[in-house]
C-alpha cells in the first residue's frame, strides 16, 4: 500500500530527514499522492469536476483498493478544507499565498490535509509532499515546502482553528455561509450544516423499480426512499445491477424529488410525464421506471445534446434535445412535469468539493430568471388538474421560496399544494413555504434538496 500513512522511509531512504533525497538520485513520488496532486491541478487549470476526473487519474496510475481510497480522500478532503488550510498556510508563509507558485500551493494544501486531518505520521506527510514538490517544481521549492509544513505540524487542527471566524474554521466562503444561515429555519444548526458539508457522503444507489430490487444490493436501506441503498463498500460498478443499468448512483434526496412527482395525486388522465431539465438523467431514469409501473410514458427533455445522450445512457428511451423554455410540445400536453432547475448547487457541497470555491454570489442572481422561466414553461405544458414539481439542489431562498412565490403570484389559477407521499412524510423537513419540503445533510443525511408541488386548477 503506497497511499496510507506508510512511512516513506521504509524501503527507500530509510532514516532520512523529511525532504532529504535518498542517495543515488531523485526520490520517487508516491503514486496515490501524485493522483491527488493531478486532480487538484485539473480542478484549478481545467475547471474540472473532481469526482469526474478522479476515476480517470486513478485508472491511468493503476491505483485500486486502499491506494485509490487514500487518493480519493486526499483530493476530496483537501478541496473541502481548502479555506481552512489557506488560513493556516497564510500564517506559515512569509509572503501572500497569491505569490506562491500554484503547483507548490496545491502540494502544501495536500500536505496540510495529511498533517491535520488524516492519520498520516508527520514525517511521512512532510517527506512525501517534499518529494512531490521536488519532482514537479524543483529542489528549491522542495526546501520551501519542507520549512512551511514543519511550521504547520507544530500545532493541531484544534489549535490552529481556535479563534478563527466561522467561514474560515468551517472552510466555506463567507457569502455562502450567510445564504445558508438565511435558509435555515433553525439558525442554531448552522455549524452542524457546515460540518455536514465537510463530511464525505456515503455512496447511495437507487434500485429502479421493476428493473432491480434493494435485496440484490449489499448495503443499508435508505430511511425515506423505498428504493435506496447505502453501499456497504467498494465501487458501485462492481454491483451487477449498476453494471447492467438497472440501478444507479443517486442521492436519497434526488430519489425523493422523483417520488414527489410520481406520488402527487392527479385526477383523470395520467399517461404523459415530462422531465423538463432531464440531464444527466438520474432522476429521469427513476421517473421512467416509475412511469412504466404506473402505465404512463416519460419524456426526458434536455437542452444540451451531450447531456441528452447521458439521459439515454441512463436507460430513458424517449429523450428530446430542446430548450426547456421553448420546448417542442403543445400547451397542456402533460399530466406531470418535473422542473429540476439549474441552480447554484449549494445544497450538494459535500459531493462537489470544489464547488464552494468556484461559485460566486452572482451565480445565484443570474440563475433566478432562468429558474422562473423554466417553471412558467412547465406550468404551460401541464394540463388543468395536472401537477408540476419544482426542485433545486440548493436551499438558497432566492432559488426556492422566491422563485415559487413570484411565479404563483402571476397566475391565480396556479396553486401551491403540500408535497405528498414519501417526500412529504420526511420529518423535520418543513420548507420555507407551507407544504414545501427542504431536506438537509445534517438532519436527513441527504443533499439539501428543495421540493415544491404546484397544481393548475381544473377550471382553467
Number of helices: 20
Number of strands: 12
* Classification by helices and strands: alpha/beta
**Shape from CA axes?**
globular
The poorly predicted ranges are: 1-25
Radius of gyration from the CA trace?
24 Å
Q: Percent range for helical residues?
A: 40-55%
Beta-strand residue percentage: 5-15%
Summarize model confidence as the mean pLDDT. 93
For the termini, the CA-CA separation is 67 Å
Q: What's the main sheet like?
A: 8 strands, mixed
Q: Would you mind describing this structure in some detail?
A:
There is one protein chain. With 460 residues, the chain is of the alpha/beta class. It has 20 helices and twelve strands.
Looking at this protein, list some descriptive labels.
460 residues; alpha/beta; eight-stranded mixed sheet; four-stranded antiparallel sheet; 12 strands; 44% helix; globular
Topology:
Layout (H helix, E strand, L loop, with lengths): L30 H16 L3 H11 L4 H16 L1 H9 L11 H16 L4 H15 L2 H14 L4 H5 L4 H4 L4 H10 L6 H8 L6 E4 L11 E3 L6 E4 L8 H4 L3 E3 L2 H11 L9 E4 L6 H12 L3 E6 L2 H9 L5 E3 L12 E7 L14 H4 L2 H21 E11 L8 H10 L3 E4 L3 H4 L12 E2 L2 H4 L5 E7 L4
Helix pairs in contact: 1-2, 1-3, 1-5, 2-3, 3-5, 4-5, 5-6, 5-7, 6-7, 13-14, 17-18
Provide a short characterization of the protein structure.
The chain is an alpha/beta fold and 460 residues long. It has 20 helices and twelve strands.
